[in-house]
Amino acid sequence: MAKTNLKTATAKQRILWKIKYFSREIMGMKNNLVVFLQTIRDKSPNVQFQKLIASSVPFLNAFVQNQNGDLFSRIYRHPLIQGYSLPYEVGHAKLVHSDWLRSALIRAVCYCSSVEDFNLERIYLELTCLTNGYSLRFVETHVQHFFNFFHL
Q1: Where are the domains of the chain?
Q2: Boundaries of each Helix-turn-helix domain copy (predicted)?
């Protein structure tokens, strides 16, 4: 059977050729990734990886989901970690936690693919501060400063 020239091939033949070509490329990338991950495991046995193929996966503190071909993402919280807790260290001033709140809001903007998810995360962060003894005025002031600073 003679090789088909892409210029003279039918649309179906071109599509099949592209699928076959990209399948080989993807398999090559997969093999390279497996070798790369094994190298990391060999050098750092404490690093844990989990291979997972699904319509939704947690990845680097983000929850990534495929909903009918659309990509959605939001903040991921591990179910075993207590909610509404701040990253405390003894002697931290309120300034440190105001920086934490601002950083957490920036992370929420970056991770959340919808305004609704961002608002849910913002409410969660506000409740976290309130349940840890910060005043409503402190929370409102810092959230408003965040919105004003980034012109949101």
Answers
A1: 7-45, 82-149
A2: 85-143
